[in-house]
């Protein structure tokens, strides 16, 4: 008799857990999850770059990577201080900051991020009109700007 009660109790617990997981809220989403821009980095070149966004609640990250925008010098991991400023639809800006980057040899494509920022539900953010500022070795500043709207469109956060 004790085995039957234990089996029924385990089945009820498993059912309750499954129902709880099915009703748990999902992670917030950003649409689209990636977009491309053509960036001009002045004397440091430019080209196509991919922005990849993620969101968890009001925290969001954006990573920028490009095989066309290249590093002028060999750089160690997490050595670039980056600020990506995105323009909000309706006015204002949102900054994404961080010091995350892989090690890069001179001539390698640039990758920075994930850069973190705070978003609100419904925020629509566009790279065009904003900038990416990278500070290397504490004194070399590279500023990149988008040469048109990001494709397929702005990031819209839940």
CA radius of gyration: 22 Å
**Average pLDDT across residues?**
86
Ends distance: 51 Å
- Number of separate strands: 10
Q: What does the overall shape look like?
A: globular
Which terms summarize this structure?
single chain, 158 residues, mainly beta, 1 helix, globular
Describe the protein's architecture and organization:
With 158 residues, the protein is mainly β. It has one domain (30-157). Helix content is 14%, strand content 51%. It is built from 1 helix and 10 strands, in the order H-E-E-E-E-E-E-E-E-E-E. Strands 1, 2, 3, 4, 5, 6, 7, 8, 9 and 10 form a 10-stranded antiparallel sheet that branches. The longest helix is centred in the N-terminal third of the chain and has 22 residues, at 2-23. It is globular, with a radius of gyration of 22 Å. The model is unreliable at 1-26 (pLDDT under 50). It comes from Streptomyces liliifuscus.
Task: Provide the fold topology.
Blueprint: H1 2-23, E1 30-31, E2 34-40, E3 46-56, E4 59-70, E5 80-88, E6 93-98, E7 109-118, E8 124-136, E9 140-146, E10 155-157
Antiparallel strand pairs: 1-10, 2-3, 2-9, 3-4, 4-7, 5-6, 5-8, 8-9, 8-10
Write a brief structural summary.
The chain has 158 residues and is mainly beta. The protein has one helix at residues 2-23; strands at 30-31, 34-40, 46-56, 59-70, 80-88, 93-98, 109-118, 124-136, 140-146, 155-157.
